Amino acid sequence: MKPCANGTNTFVNCDLRHGIGQKQAGIETDTYLFWRNRYCEMKMLPSSCDTFVALPPSTEKPCIIFGKNSDRPCDEVQEVVYFPAKDYAAEEKVECTYIEIEQVAHTYAVVLSKPAWLWGAEMGANEHQVCIGNEAVWGRESADGEEALLGMDLVRLGLERANTAEKAVDVITELLEKYGQGGSCMEDECNFTYHNSFLISDRVEAWLLETAGKYWAAERIQAGHRNISNQYCITTKIDKEHPGMREYAKSKGWWDGKTEFNFATVYSYLTTARIESAGSRYCEGKKLLEQSSGHITAEVMMQILRDKDSGINMEGMFMTTGSMVSVIPTNPALPAVHYFTGTPDPQRSVFKPFIFVENAHLLKETSSPSFGPDDPVKKKPRFQSKPDRKHPLFVKHELVAAIIDAHKDRGQKIIESMRQLEKESLKEMEGVSVDEPDLLVDLFFLSVQKEMSLYSKS
């Protein structure tokens, strides 16, 4: 099998990772099918996604900085989309990825980074500067269940319906109680399922919410920094919880009802000590935050998301397919800036700014094609085929990524140009004002246009 550029003998080399095709990648069909089947058999062991939040005094300025890498199957397209606020009539429904649920009277404007095949999102923000990212978690409670709400659906629903981080916790847990969580989280016939943890922030604080089936615990974070990966990490500090969560654990024999209740110990396969073990992405991410504590900026968060040695910027069967960094000033008079890549591997992607303003335009260059009721995800049996979901920016980026892989010197110059473009954008955002919103309605679009122009010259 042809190895990846990082030297690992994994399923995907860099060409296939960007979806150019099996022949160019040098992988025969039978080999591809063999590893795809192994992919299913392994049920995607916990090995993906990292989410971070930094609050004063760990940030350089009085702001909250949120960041996430979305690590997903290597051939998956992630789009960045904007949906304006909207009012709905009574009795209206909303069709999520697998099930239909009751709609609310009003949804907030949201910007989302989402796998193109599903309704929900891996990460995003809303007009009230609530940010949410989710993580896959596995534990003693079985994740094999009927189709219900995906964790990504809950991210989007939380953003559409909550104007504070704490309210988002309430929204998500109420939906969890009413509809449950379940269904395949991958666009494939493999039944890849998991429970979810969520890191949620606003202008004031952050919340960590961890779930196991319908049971959950939540912890408020009011200062410092926090990161999560793919393990439970709420221990004894529990600020909100499912009313039956402890009794359920006791009935299952996971907790004796006498010792101090530790959510991670009780609901995990792994002990808290194992979560902290050397070499884990969680531990490495925590170290990176600690190294910059007191000086964390958007640039620092982007650098953390780009870190390959730690595994945070992932390569292989699962890779970083989209990244997000948000800068939320604690002063409500100042605008928040949300940066998205919309392309794989932040090391060779550009973070582009989005600001919520009235009449912001839709993000067409990072929106994937829509297939409506003919989408193979909507038809049962599901996932019998996989349509081309590449959006215009993805197509351009895919070609340039292949050049970067094939030509070291030329590739380095391209990356340097990308970094320069990003630095100019970051500098421009330092003095940005929403006093003239008409100048910001196309902010993200114009940034994408500059990036695509750079690619065309390359």
From TrEMBL:
Gene3D superfamilies registered for this protein in UniProt: Penicillin V Acylase, Chain A
One GO term (biological process): proteolysis
GO molecular function annotations of the record: cysteine-type exopeptidase activity; dipeptidase activity
Region annotated Disordered, chain positions: 367-388
Residue ranges of coiled coil: none
Family membership: Belongs to the peptidase C69 family. Secernin subfamily.
Protein name per UniProt: Secernin-3
Organism classification: Eukaryota, Metazoa, Chordata, Craniata, Vertebrata
